[in-house]
Amino acid sequence: MGIGKLFEEVGGAVAAEQAAEAVDPNAGILVTGAAAVAGFLGAGKLSDVLAAHAAKPDAAPTAAAAPAVDPNDPEPEPT
What per-residue string of b and e applies to 39-70 under the rule 16 or more CB within 10 Å gives b? Predict the structure, then answer.
């Protein structure tokens, strides 16, 4: 666990706690605590999913990699 991931998780906890207080200004300690825990775990999980997605190579080639073919051209130029 790096320091960057810890900052992301703490940021998620703070954001979730502030959102819970914005929705219900009279929220108790249990509601704000549960929101903080959910934000902490959610931000950590989101960070893991995004890192795994970024590390995965693309399976299909992009359209930019394929040469442009005109279907109306009777004899395409060789590449």
Answer: bbeebbeeeeeeeeeeeeeeeeeeeeeeeeee
16 located within any domain = no
Q: What is the pTM of this model?
A: 0.63
Number of structural domains (the chain) is: 1
Helix ranges (DSSP H) in the chain: 3-23, 29-55
Domain-located, residue 52: yes
Q: Give domain status of residue 78, yes or no.
A: no
Over 60: is that where the pLDDT of 63 sits?
Answer: no
